Amino acid sequence: MRQLNTTPHGLTAPVFFTIINKKGEVQNMAEKGKWWVKDGVFYELHFNTDKTDTYTFEVIDEEHIKFKLKSTDVAFADSNYEFIDTKLTDLAE
Q1: In contact, 43 and 33? CB cutoff 8 Å
Q2: Is CB count within 10 Å lower at the N or C end of the chain?
Q3: DSSP calls for 16-67
């Protein structure tokens, strides 16, 4: 599971991750980057590596989006990497 929180402006924002693996171990991370959607593909540029990951995605409901990795420069043990983002709060309120 990965939880994502960004500003309402989208594009350039800090991204905060809470990753919970299958063993229940929790890891919190933060990074800066830029994200956008073009032609139905989600692009995630990581400023720390200057690399861009791409994902297909499906909006499940108002608070959940399912992402499936399309391409990355990072070596993954699982080529079928996918996750669900959960909205933490509405920063526009």
Answers
A1: no
A2: C
A3: EEEEE-TT--EEEEEEEEEEEEETTEEEEEETTTTEEEEEEEEEEETTEEEE
Coil/strand/helix, residue 88: coil
User: What's residue 61's pLDDT?
Assistant: 95
Q: Are the beta carbons of 47 and 34 closer than 8 angstroms? A: yes
What is the widest separation between alpha-carbon atoms in the chain?
39
pLDDT single digits (tens) 25-41: 988 888 888 888 899 99
Domain extent listing, the chain = 2-87
Q: What are phi and psi of 28, to 5 degrees?
A: -105, 135
